[in-house]
Amino acid sequence: MNPIVSIRALTKTYASGLQALKPISLDIHRGEIFAMLGPNGAGKTTLIGIICGLVRASGGTVQVDGFDTIKDYRKTRSLIGLVPQELHTDTFEKVISTLRFSRGLFGLAPNDAHLDAVLKELSLFDKRNEQIKTLSGGMKRRVLIAKALSHEPRILFLDEPTAGVDVELRHDMWAMVRRLRDAGMTIFLTTHYIQEAEEMADRIGIMNKGELIMVEDKAVLMQKLGKKQVTLELAQSLSTIPASLDDLKLELSGGGHAVTYRYEAQSANGIAYLLRRFDEAGIAFTDLHTEQTSLEEIFVNLVRANP
Amino acid sequence: MNVHAVRAIYWFELSRWFRTLGQSLVTPVLTTSLYFIVFGAAIGGQMGKIDGVDYAAFIVPGLVMLAVLTETVSNASIGIYMPKWSGTIYELLSAPVSFAEVILGYVGAAATKSFLIAGVILLTARLFVSYDIAYPIAMIGILILITITFALVGFIIGLWASSWEQIGIAPSLILTPLTFLGGTFYAISMLPSFWQTVALFNPVVYLISAFRWSFFGIADVPVGVSLAATAGFMALCVAAIAYVFLTGYKIRA
């Protein structure tokens, strides 16, 4: 199946001379949740801006569902729902009127039944006749999502959807995003929260300083770059690691009562290998526990490696 | 043509206006009433007729223009500056709409408001002075042309402005002088000949002249010339807005 978004050699240099995007190529697959990770200023928002029509590219092309975002902008934009990072709302308007406005703006005939369904999905139905200025920050964020969904897009762009959102609401938001994906929508989100990407994404991209450093299935990424470590609690403390185990680069801790062994997730020299070596060296242990590096550590290492 | 989008923008803008209908109407009506009391009743009584028309009646079209131009520019500029300022313009920029549709929506709404204001002012004027409209249909046509043209001017100011101060300054700094010097209170023929020539560079002269013609059948400038000048000015505004949208100037990074 052809990708829903196809980005080729996309660049952006702002009038100030800032090169926000170095040539970027990326495909977003239909029906996936794609999370773009990156520190501030990585170019995530610029990338979304170009796809959605807010920012003009300096070079390269973007196709949405096979249509060019410049030549066929009507076609591509009607397929896209955008939820911006900042809470830009018409403060004096009622929730329902801004939704009607959004739906019309994107070229669809009025359909209050659809808008009501969207409002219910986002737990905003009770607030539909309230002025937006009376709503809390979390609700305003949901109003923006409702506006984006009001015109029945095929792909939803969420720019930092959970920035400044409390934990409970964040989990609600994740659940909602999953429901949308289950209903067939493609989701592209940017985030600072690695936990968010780890929790939700099917694929993860990592950007830094305008470059796309890596795009990978989440599971593959975790496996490929993930490191594991196993810690053995020793029956008797050691003052030094026996010379026969030097090649394992063990680390002694806990006053000689524990040793830690690090290995690549995909390595053949895993736990079984370690235990066999300990057995051969005649070292007894009472307990063991393993840990896997989180996406956060992978991310930090990648960004550090690409300064 | 994205008709739904034009309709959505148009009604969204009108409903914003209706929400504050009181203040939208009270200001122009009050200002115009003051002008009628001072210039029409107090001073006008001392003035002779101009081209056979009572002075108080003579200033009616000019005063309508004064209010309409100020209100149109102010309404249209706020209409597009508001989303720029609040950030909600992101939605307009990411929507499947062409610049022509955006203009139709915003400018159409601003022109509609001004048309309604003009009607209210004409009714108000009726309370102070009796006047007849010689060519009512032409009057409506000219009014529509003028409100659209100046809604375009307001739209450009709204696109250009980067602060609320600039939005406020434009009407008072540019429009009020142009309207006062455009023959609101006098016929251009009353000016010394040098200033008559200068006045012909003021686009508002043509508007007031054409509008006054529809009331009394008299004009400073032939009606055809007035309409041509207004249409030319309007084309210039459309070109300027097209430039803004096609190049992204000030709205698209």
Task: Note the topology.
The complex is a heterodimer of chains A (307) and B (253).
Chain A: E1 5-13, E2 19-28, E3 33-37, H1 44-52, E4 59-64, E5 67-68, H2 73-79, E6 80-83, H3 95-105, H4 112-121, H5 137-149, E7 155-159, H6 167-182, E8 186-191, H7 194-200, E9 203-208, E10 211-217, H8 218-225, E11 227-234, E12 251-253, E13 258-264, H9 271-281, E14 285-292, H10 295-305
Parallel strand pairs in A: 3-8, 3-9, 6-7, 7-8
Antiparallel strand pairs in A: 1-2, 1-4, 4-5, 9-10, 11-13, 11-14, 12-13
Helix pairs in contact in A: 3-5
Chain B: H1 3-19, H2 21-43, H3 55-86, H4 89-93, H5 99-128, H6 136-160, H7 164-180, H8 193-199, H9 203-216, H10 223-247
Helix pairs in contact in B: 1-5, 2-3, 2-5, 3-5, 3-6, 3-7, 3-9, 5-6, 6-9, 6-10, 9-10
Low-confidence stretches of chain A: none
Compute the number of structural domains of chain B.
1
Provide a count of the helices of chain B: 10
Number of strands of chain B: 0
Name given to the CATH architecture of the largest domain in chain A? 3-Layer(aba) Sandwich
Strand count, sense and closure of the main sheet of chain A?
6 strands, mixed
In short:
The complex is a heterodimer of chains A (307) and B (253). Chain A has 307 residues and is of the alpha/beta class.
Keywords, please?
heterodimer, A: 307 residues, alpha/beta, Rossmann fold, Alpha-Beta Plaits, 2 domains, six-stranded mixed β-sheet, four-stranded antiparallel β-sheet, 10 helices, 14 strands, 34% helix, B: 253 residues, mainly alpha, globular
Describe the fold and architecture:
The complex is a heterodimer of chains A (307) and B (253). Chain A is 34% helix and 28% strand. By secondary structure, chain A is of the alpha/beta class. Chain A folds into 2 domains: 5-223, Rossmann fold (3-Layer(aba) Sandwich), CATH 3.40.50.300; 227-305, Alpha-Beta Plaits, CATH 3.30.70. In chain A, the strands form 3 sheets. In chain A, strands 6-7-8-3-9-10 form a 6-stranded mixed β-sheet, sandwiched between helices. A 4-stranded antiparallel β-sheet of chain A has the order 2-1-4-5, with helices on one face. Chain A starts with a strand and ends with a helix. Chain B has 253 residues and is mainly α. Chain B has one domain (3-247). In chain B, 77% of the residues lie in helices and 0% in strands. Chain B contains 10 helices and no strands. Chain B has helices at 3-19, 21-43, 55-86, 89-93, 99-128, 136-160, 164-180, 193-199, 203-216, 223-247. The longest helix of chain B has 32 residues, at 55-86. The radius of gyration of chain B is 19 Å and the shape is globular. The mean pLDDT of chain B is 86. Chains A and B meet through α2 and α3 of A and α1 and α4 of B.
